[in-house]
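Lab notes, practical 5.
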Amino acid sequence: MSHPPPHVRPAAVAGMFYPGSSSVLARDLRDLLNDSRPAQGRRPKAVIVPHAGYIYSGPIAASVYAPIAALRESIRRVVLLGPTHRVAVDGLAFPASTAFATPLGVVPVDPQALALIEALPQVVVSDAAHALEHSLEVQLPFLQTVLDEFTLVPLAVGRASPAEVAEVLECLWGGDETLIVISSDLSHYLPYRVARDTDADTARRIVALDARIDHQQACGATPVNGLLLAARRHGLRAQLVDLRNSGDTAGDRSRVVGYGAFAFTAESAHDH
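Output from the prediction step:
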């Protein structure tokens, strides 16, 4: 197998978090998206989706991605934020890579996006922050399935304040052509019943746009809180689409990871 050229960030977790075979991956995604009950409602401007292995969180992610297929004609850019798990980074890391590869193909990084945010002190350029990071990568095959051609603005979020994240989102907000995706799981390794109560409380806070989620409640708390600040400023309304955990999907119930899917829509047809 030939390796992609160095400017393409190759898939790091294909064959682990999701199938490494393009045909198996395409089939699994088709099944996940077909099985999900499409939420009727307004056009989402932003979503929060989990990022575990597909057998664990795929059905929850699919619940929010399936309706986005209806917008495939108009969405041309995806601003994708997730927490760093492997490499500590100060601020929000943009890759030097010009594209991200998955078994389904290559997604170009948006060449204009960096120009919009590079003057901000919290934005850094780091391929290392992205090299092994799964929180962004696992969203790409879903996006490649439900959208047509789109460019990617991938930001690995390290040590930053919610206000710093919101400032970056503000610069990249755009219009109907831009979808914002925040990748985050909820509670980690609690017993099943405790996790259900904890995650239900976190979900209530997210729906209330209460930007005080902590990292025990959501590993992606920093980008989640940043989105909640921006959503409040833009008059978006949050809807809980799905809330489950690994004990509901493919894991045992003694130590579970929580997964929530949320959609953020404008209150009216026009953004505030």
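Observations recorded by the TA: The chain has ten helices and twelve strands. The mean pLDDT is 94.
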